[in-house]
User: Fold this.
Amino acid sequence: MERILKKLDLVDYIDSFSKLMAREKSIVLEGDINLHHKLINELSKFDIKAPNKIENLDTPLMHIQKQGILKIDDIFEFIKMINYFRYLKRFNFDGKLLEWLDKIIIPNDILKISDYFDDKATLKSGINEDFDNIKYAISKNKETIKQSLYKIINSPKIRTYLVDSQVHYINGEESLLVRGGFNHVLNASVIDRSNSGFFYVIPHSISELKQKQSDLKNKQEEILFKICKEISSIFEKNLLFLKFLNKEFDRFDHYQARLFFAKIGDKNFILPSKNDVNRLVDFCHPALHNPKPITIDFTKSVVMITGVNAGGKTMMLKSILSAVFLSKYLLPYKAHHDTVVSNFKSINAVLDDPQSVKNDISTFAGRMVEFSKLFASKNAIVGVDEIELGTDSDEAASLFKVIIEDLIQRDIKVIITTHHKRLAALMASNENVELIAALYDEENQKPTYEFLQGTIGRSYAFETASRYGIPLSVVKRAREVYGDDKDKLNELIERSSSLEREYKQKIAKLDDEIKNMQRITSNLKDQKEKLDEHIYSEKSKLHKEYSEARDEAKKAIKAKLVGESHQHLNIAHKMATEIKTEKIQEVVEFKEGDRVKYRNTKGTIVSIKGAKAFIENDMGMKVQVLLADLSRSGNPPPKIPTKKATVTIEKPETGNIKLDLHGQRADEAIENLDKFLSDALLAGFEEVLVYHGIGTGKLAFAVKEYLKKHPKVRGFEDAHPSSGGFGAKVIKL
Assistant:
């Protein structure tokens, strides 16, 4: 892996990522990449702190397996790992992340041990009484030593020999800094010498205290060893769990490091897809400081990059392979989320000159060795820089054409950079080959570091030579040697590239216009939906006002007194005339012969008289209806804006409490029943009788279902045997 990272210029990028992990390990995240991606997405919803640095625990685990006793530092590394998982379990995770963490059940004896230590790997007070007593004794004795030293410092006879009045800690020992000749007034041992020529000494008067301090520390170490032995024994009993936890910690460490790395520089995770589409969108190679984002489609089996020298061909090749590599190992990188990369089994890069004195191999021979290895590969992607390197260009063109065609058959994707126009021309007609040209700014005489798909590019060798300091006279003579015919060919190639570029620009412009029209269409659709909602609201309001007016009309009809009748009718008339429909968009104007729809039936207008029309339905029946109840059936009607609509409430000329539906079809019967009930309601009838007969039961069923759904029907039941029995219904309004 290190080799491919160097070839693709990804070493620094991977090093930056690796520093975010809690401990050093491979960047490879083993297991189902789709599951890893899902868990990372779920984890990204939470603000979780990174784990502390933890040492590799493979050796301590092996030591436990052999029933060895761990050091306190090794034990604390396990404790840090355990406490981090305890921290994670405090979060309200869900989905796959919750399922995963629920599998990590920490044993109670391990939980107990994790509470033994503070953040500095020091045993907490109250864990072991003997240890606490020794710790206190050491602290007390240390204070006694300090006080004894201060007593010596304040002694008048020694004061003139002291450089300062401080207690110095040299190699963990308390000492005084004195001048030469101190031995006449102070019995002490010299332990070190300062840069100024002074002496660090330990007075003999505190030697017993120092010895006591040493004895106490030895006892403390004995107690600590005993505690470590007990913990190691518990760890041995839970060895399988500790191995499992160690592995799961690395897994979580991979997730957390990737998330933190993605946040630095706004990177995206591009999950490898299972389809054959491959497209980079606004990709930036990590090695470039001020990269120009590239967008390139490399779906075809072969991508052949030609064009100007120093124009970014090799970096384009490395960019494609880098994106594939980073996606394969689920490492985030800077690219648009529309980027699509296939999941390749292996990634190869033939970039360097293999010639070496040590291996006694030529450039071309080395290239052939590398190519020979590709024939055994499957589902691989390979990048080849300067494919014709090391041999005659014409022979190489024929050889590599056949090699490339064979690799295509073996399902191997090949990314090639070349200046060899003959090879590009040979492969141009192959439908599996994508040509890409690195572009050159003719006006400013420099590469643009942009690329154009579908064409062959010029090398611009003479222009590049001039740009990098080759004398113009030398370049001129080279052009003469090159010949006018070949130069004209280059001009033709450049003209082709220009036309292709112009064509793609026009396509891009048209795409923008299409997107703009789509936005306008979408806005108009939204406006229409809002307008429809408004119309529906106004219609509902109108219906309510109409119902209220109708109720007043019913009261007027039922009124026994003339004065009261006129009063109610005046109220109804006032309410009806006050109904406004300024917000209703349109009204339909009908004429004789128009196809119309009335409720559930369709027909043709026979005649129109005022606000009413006679229609002949498709069953041959003629019915008089209000024009307002009709809708057009056929071509859409012309839209005529209106300011006001009126409601006409008519008392039926004849009122009847009985309706006979015998012999009628279901749809015809329902229509007649609907009109009958409307007339009955206006007439103020509270109960009516409808005959439908028994027969096959279809008509009876249709009537029953209609009555169930009618908003003004309070209830219905079979009629009395004398009034029709099962063949009739008594309807309460």
User: Anything to note?
Assistant: Residues 485-489, 580-585, 635-653 have pLDDT under 50 and may be disordered. DSSP finds 21 helices and 21 strands in the chain.
